[in-house]
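Forum > Structural Biology > Help requests

Title: Can anyone predict the 3D structure of HAD-IA family hydrolase?

Hi all, first post here. I have the sequence for HAD-IA family hydrolase but no way to get a structure on my laptop. I'd be grateful if someone could post the structure tokens.
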Amino acid sequence: MSDTGNPAVETAAVEAVVFDVGRVIVEWDLRALFAKLIDDPAELDRFLAEVVTEEWHFQHDAGRPLSETISERQAEFPEHAALIAAYAERFLETLPGRVPGTAALVRRLAARDVPLFAITNFGAEFWDMFRPTEPLFDLFGDIVVSGREKTMKPDAAIFALAAERFRYPPEAMLFIDDNRANIDAAAALGWQVHHFRDADTLERDLEARGLI
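Reply #1:
Sure, ran it for you. Structure tokens for HAD-IA family hydrolase below:
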């Protein structure tokens, strides 16, 4: 298996391609929202480091509902109650656009009838907000969303669930993710993997595998 696009170390033909979503297909950046709401750069940095942090956000990916997490955080930081509420209400503004180049690769794979799937660490409520805004996912046969399943990458359980749902053995699927821990977990379970850095590198890997 290779995560760099080196075909010399490939072990099996890829029958399906499985994408991560955040920072592979779409950008995710808390600053994209809160820079609109906090004018002072130092205060913005402090807020993102202490109040609405990526680490705090990840509990939504694990399945916790906003009705619990928002009220808890507001109780902890009452002076920021309105900003914390804005995160739930304006989450889509943390997704400022697509990662350059990946959507074109998705379409090229689809044009060649390569089965497409996704495994994403994404809060269920946030996914329900986001999914209708992104027609690219109409090309995907199925998407495993961690917040719905209440298990998240890199736990082996989510990869086992995905293999069952997608109906391909792990060794026949190429899993693409920007997170090294997720890549290592998938590789240990027999998946072929690509550690995403940018679309150009991914394009070379897909071409080397004869997928596009």
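DSSP finds eleven helices and five strands in the chain. Strands lie at 16-19, 116-120, 142-145, 173-177, 192-195.
Shout if anything looks off.
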